[in-house]
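Reagents: none. Just compute today. HAD-like protein.
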Amino acid sequence: IRPAPIIVEYLPHQTNKGTSLARLMKYLNISKDEVVAFGDGLNDIQFLQNVGWPIAMENACDELKQYAKIITKPNSEDGVAFLLEKIFLNDNIEIDSNKTNLISDTNIVK
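Predicted 3D structure written out:
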């Protein structure tokens, strides 16, 4: 996997963030609709495909953003903390859970 131009990751055969998360979800007996995941690189595609609430960072590559229901602020602006705070404070975020995975339909939270 090459999540960035200067980074190369080596993983065991048929292992990625998505398969690891799926095993954890099965162990904890939770459904994908109960799981939120944040990603910013190509190595996060399977990760986002295995959750009900896939979120991409604004600075994520365009290929990954196609799998997101929500795009939050970039890493440099603490996008994860920003969105979690909005969610937990019930800050009127409207999200269509039936949205298709197209960038044009993605909700951008700022």
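The chain is about 30% helix and 15% strand.
Action item: order primers for follow-up constructs.
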